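[recover] target loaded
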């Protein structure tokens, strides 16, 4: 297995942003006259002035913490937090419990792909913070069959089975526990430049059960019975607008850097770094570290590093230097490849067959348009706030 030369699939001449490291591997990228990409310009114009690197949001943060605490009066938990073992959710947990005194229901999904380094991090942290960790063990056989189904589609974004289960559990637990706040670890600091949408063609929204069920129906060879689904309607509309369950992103109200986050976690909890962002589970490490770069010519580190570059945490030259090497060594890739085939109970030849198949052109059912429209209608009618209450 060697890394093919990464070529943009469109006919555009190769171009890379003069400010960050996004390039024409995003087919939709546009550049201004100075060669600066649309993401960098949007960041400067719209995001940075408001976010201000997390500075000056003390009042918003204070109000939010107060509201969360108030909503949880008389209840066992005042919010809910899904812990992946990654840096962002771990830092979120640290702030929520230690700094802000919140009482989150903390859960973790075991979808059969956990890596010991992430598991150990999670255990050490929750133990030191005195927080009970709820682990949802997904039916391993089903999860492997579902993962295989996504490989069979030829799609690029193959994380859907575990990502959807995560969203479905959040939806389920928040209703069951009567919790009004979901703590989301999303942060501008390390994630402002997202994966290009052009990499997600043909995939449905991760939170959309219609899409997930359709892939299951078309590509699973055994019935899926234990898996948990949510729907776009529930996730995007009923829970937030009717039941008043808010998803909040408090990391954007706090000043930190990727480095300072890591330092705090390692000093306080003996947190062990696991390398590239999202490398906390085996399948994501495989997909982002090998599958996507070699099958599609897409290196997710471009987005991750660009986030650090535009927010001033890394120089563009440093990012370019990192990108010169593949995300995984050949040895690591081979080991992962073997391990993934083994867990999926297929031969390495079969896995390679999926790697070499044509890209997906199949259409899957999806509710995306429907729930986006629903939210828009309520916003237009000015009903959003009332329903939220
Ligand atoms: Zn840029």
């Amino acid at each position: 297995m060697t890394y093919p030369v990464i070529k943009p699939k469109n006919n555009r001449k190769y171009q890379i942003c003069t400010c960050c490291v996004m390039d024409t591997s995003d087919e939709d990228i546009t550049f201004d006259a100075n060669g600066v990409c649309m993401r960098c310009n949007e960041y400067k114009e719209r995001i940075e002035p408001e976010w201000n690197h997390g500075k000056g949001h003390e009042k918003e943060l204070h109000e939010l913490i107060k509201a969360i605490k108030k909503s949880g009066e008389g209840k066992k938990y005042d919010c809910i937090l899904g812990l992946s073992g990654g840096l962002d959710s771990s830092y979120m947990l640290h702030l929520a419990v230690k700094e802000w005194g919140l009482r989150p229901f903390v859960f973790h999904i075991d979808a059969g792909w956990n890596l010991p380094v992430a598991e150990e991090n999670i255990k050490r942290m929750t133990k030191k913070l005195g927080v009970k960790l709820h682990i949802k063990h997904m039916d391993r056989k089903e999860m492997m069959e579902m993962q295989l189904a996504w490989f069979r589609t030829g799609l690029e974004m193959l994380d859907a089975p575990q990502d959807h289960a995560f969203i479905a559990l959040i939806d389920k637990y928040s209703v069951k526990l009567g919790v009004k706040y979901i703590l989301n670890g999303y942060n501008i600091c390390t994630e402002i430049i997202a994966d290009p949408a052009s990499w997600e063609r043909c995939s449905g929204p991760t939170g959309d059960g219609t899409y997930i069920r359709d892939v299951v129906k078309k590509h699973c060879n055994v019935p899926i019975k234990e898996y948990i689904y949510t729907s776009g309607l529930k996730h995007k509309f009923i829970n937030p607008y009717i039941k008043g369950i808010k998803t909040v992103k408090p990391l954007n109200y706090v000043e930190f850097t990727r480095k300072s986050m890591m330092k705090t976690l390692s000093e306080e909890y003996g947190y062990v770094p696991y390398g590239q962002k999202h490398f906390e589970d085996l399948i994501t490490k495989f997909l982002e570290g090998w599958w996507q770069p070699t099958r599609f010519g897409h290196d997710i580190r471009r987005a991750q590093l660009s986030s650090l570059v535009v927010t001033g945490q890394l120089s563009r030259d440093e990012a370019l230097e990192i990108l010169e090497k593949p995300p995984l060594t050949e040895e690591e890739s081979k080991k992962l490849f073997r391990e993934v085939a083994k867990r999926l109970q297929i031969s390495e030849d079969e896995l390679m067959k999926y790697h070499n198949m044509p890209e997906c052109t199949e259409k899957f059912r999806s509710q995306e348009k429907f729930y986006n429209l629903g939210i828009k209608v309520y916003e237009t009618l000015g009903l959003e706030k009332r329903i939220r209450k």
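[recover] notes: DSSP finds 17 helices and five strands in the chain.
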